[in-house]
Amino acid sequence: MRTGKKILVSGVKPTGRPHIGNYFGAMKQMVDMQDEYDCSIFIADLHALTSVASGNLANSSGDDSALNVATNLAQNTLDLAIDYLAIGLDPKKVTLYKQSDTPQVAELAWIFNCITTMPYLSRAHAFKDAQAKEKETTVGVFDYPILMSADILLPGADIVPVGMDQKQHIEIARDTAEKFNRIFGETFAMPEPLITKDVAVVPGTDGQKMSKSYGNTIGLFASDEEILKAVMKIPTDSKGVDEPKNPDECKVFALHKLFADADLVDLKSRYEKGGIGYKESKEILARKISAFIAPLRAKREKIASDPEYVIDLLIAGGKKAQMKAEKKMEEVRKKVGLTFNQ
Ligand code: ADP
Ligand code: TRP
């Protein structure tokens, strides 16, 4: 049943430590909108399983051996729950859960599979990239967007805050909703992506999109030393301190823009006029990032000291999410003929 509020749905995969790209691109929006929307926020552990074949489920200490996948995935899931709480998601306001606690999404994904064609899914960027890079692509990777469609459509999402790289997945969810509704009658609401313009693609320390898989991240809970080290390795050109510089071409400046404060205008004019070297710009940036991260890190440490509390929250969130999911699935099962009482 719909409350007066619009519904927001989003998730992050527990495939490693989140970075400031995840935060500014998607996670911050979840926190900012938790009062205004009825929020279902989850840890996409079923989606993370698509990384098993590539042995890419690193744990917090960076161990990416595939041997201990189950332990790593469970630990990453708990870590991500702590991260969500540390950035300010309030479990009293949002339903916070792990995706696998709503097995109805896998059931719905199967039903969607049966109305989706192979050529249609073959056009998905992530599948095409995986095929280009890996010798073996799993069915899970191929079907990833359909499971994501189920995640989004089952709780009735009106909006889905994500970074730009997820845009196509939301389009697939919309197409799937449309197709299901056409065949079986009006059932699913049409979700809209919420992609925040200035942070749609947060650049990494090498100027490419910041991503766990590119080794170019600044961890959302990194220590001051890690932040300084990451910032200092950002490549720059060889212009001297006094030479004018184009801020739009500077990878350091691109990250300054995340902290759009009063200093940014001043910094921009120092770049353009000359008078600031890259070293100073990097030191200012590292200080800004540290000042932003320090309170998050402290809050995280506190929450992490009581994992039982976090696990209990996830169990309670899972129950709540499952109840809502089951209600909608009853309607879906009737519509497709999986129950006797039509
Ligand atoms: P990664 O690419 O690092 O593995 P995920 O796939 O776990 O990140 O993404 C989690 C959320 O963060 C998604 O909504 C995604 O669009 C967003 N996101 C990831 N990287 C960036 C980035 N560099 N800029 C903006 N948003 C991002
Ligand atoms: N695919 C998303 C990512 O890589 C994670 C995700 C799974 C998701 N299901 C979702 C995001 C539903 C938004 C809504 O980050």
End-to-end C-alpha gap: 20 Å
What is the 3D shape? globular
How many strand units? 5
Stretches with pLDDT under 50, minimum 5 residues: none
How many structural domains does the protein architecture include? 2
How much of the residues is beta strand, in percent? 5-15%
Chemical compounds bound to the protein:
adenosine-5'-diphosphate, tryptophan
Secondary structural class: mainly alpha
Number of helices: 13
Could you please say which CATH topology of the largest domain applies here?
Answer: Rossmann fold
Strand count, sense and closure of the main sheet? 3 strands, parallel
What's the Cα radius of gyration?
Answer: 22 Å
As a percent range, the share of helical residues equals 40-55%
How are the strands ordered across the major sheet? Answer: 1-2-3
What is the element string, with H for helices and E for strands? EHEHHEHHHHEHEHHHHH
CATH class of the largest domain: Alpha Beta
The CATH superfamily of the largest domain is known as HUPs
CATH architect. name of the largest domain: 3-Layer(aba) Sandwich
Report mean pLDDT, rounded to a whole number: 93
